[in-house]
Amino acid sequence: MSRIRGMRGHLASSIAVTCAAALALPLALSSDAAATSSAAERRTTGNSNPGGTTPGSTQSLPLTPLTPSTPPSSSTPPSPSTPSSPSTPSSGDRTLPPPALATAPAQGLARRDVRHFSLVGVVWDDPDSELHGRVQVRTRATGTTKWSAWQDVDTHNHEHAADPDTAERTSGRVRGSTAPLWVGDSDGVEVRVQGEAAGRPGAGGRAVTAEPLPKGLHVELVDPGAEPPPQGPELNAPPPGVLTAESAAAASAVNAELAPIGATEISALSRKETRADLLATHGEETDATDTTGTGTGTGTGTGAAGTADTVAASANQRAKPYIGARPRIVTRRGWGADEGLRESNFSYTKTVKAVFVHHSASGNNYRCAQAPSVIRSIYRYHVKSSGWRDIGYNFLVDKCGNIYEGRAGGVAKPVMGAHTLGFNSKSMGIAVLGSFGTANPPAASVKAVAKLTAWKLGLYGANPRGKTYLKSGGGNLYRKGKNVRLNVISGHRDGFATECPGGRLYAKLGKARATSARYQGR
């Protein structure tokens, strides 16, 4: 067994080294904006190696100014109301907005045919600029003439990001962005962005001054592509144009102690097997984390020991390991990640002291069988549209309770994510796929969060019902450098002023903490 571990460790090392505004009333496009954009107006990106058999792609279309519309004619029927936006008109409604709203900045994209896509978001040039207002889209299902009702896109997304002053944040590639919205297979789109109107009451009853919309607004249309065909564990024949042998092997090798190279999933273990594995491997390898703080660690251990923060936890775990059974985890290869999109190296923090729970805010209109496609779309949106080094979350959970590996670097290791602005260090982020402001999260999803945290926090000696301190990297709740006392399992809103993970999911975190602790045997 030790010889196998040594071989796996050597392989992993070798590969790592080598490798809420008022509802916007109807607006119409100006004559210039209504014209079909030329090819020069588009920024379209395919997979990292064009010509592959399973490509994903991103279409990027610029938004242009909207102008107030003309009154409706008697032949124009009123549009039916929709539950999500009861007073939202159809594109045929031409009611003039009131004077106050007419002064609000607005941009959009007229209805148009586009190539297939399944996920949509809006991006802009400056990641430090916020979009104050409302973003709405409507889409047409592929191969039909049926258009959806207007759907709101969550504009509050800047709090899902790398910490200030980190290499990822200061790369020069990062852009501002909304949350992505999953709309299913579509081939038509219409967009409107309405800024906050001047004169409306703000905090303290003072009138709000309209802020300009961010510069460089584009709508991003993401096609997740098809899943790569199954390959053998040796990865000798990766799908051409999608995965290179080196990047695919490197992403898989960091999990080599848990599953064969090229595995599409990491199998579940019983709690007894998990404890035995922890006791057998704990402390054998101490170079798994980035002890220098440079974010370039390439060690091959579980990441559960080896730093000052985890020495005490390691001793306690050796004496009496509180750890939940390792759950089944779908690997990046399992959900079809194009490893050529992300940065080739891995980034680590020192330990895992806390977990931040998120919702993806991408909507609930997906089937569990579509979850890999949703994740591939979010991954592409984070990297190609938002300019991040990889998908932001460490793990993702679907409505059926399936758990997916997120950011590359190893599921048992302290991988540095980009999920909670100011608190990505010494933490990990779990995103439940969906939107849970008004919808209840599925029980299976909450249970999966409990299972995952019982195992991952157990590797680092953390009590799911406990409290811990994290140092803020800077945000809108806590200044940079402040030590903040947080629940070991926190919601995103505990570290940043945001609605995430939605009120309904946030209300379930107490249950998740108790269940996770019980799974650990506490």
Structure at a glance:
The protein has 522 residues and is α+β, with helices and mostly antiparallel strands. 21% of the residues lie in helices and 20% in strands. The N terminus is likely disordered.
Strand content: 15-25%
Order of helical and strand elements: HEHEEEHEEEEEEHEHHEHEHEEEHEEEHH
The assigned structural class equals alpha+beta
How many helices? 11
Uncertain runs are 1-44, 47-53, 70-101, 231-243, 283-308
Distance between the termini: 30 Å
User: In one word, what is the shape?
Assistant: globular
Q: Summarize the main sheet.
A: 10 strands, antiparallel
Give Rg in angstroms: 24 Å
Description:
This protein is α+β, with helices and mostly antiparallel strands and 522 residues long. Helices cover 21% and strands 20% of the residues. The protein is built from eleven helices and 19 strands. Strands 1, 2, 3, 4, 5, 6, 7, 8, 9 and 10 form a ten-stranded antiparallel beta sheet that branches. Residues 1-44, 47-53, 70-101, 231-243 and 283-308 have low confidence and may be disordered.
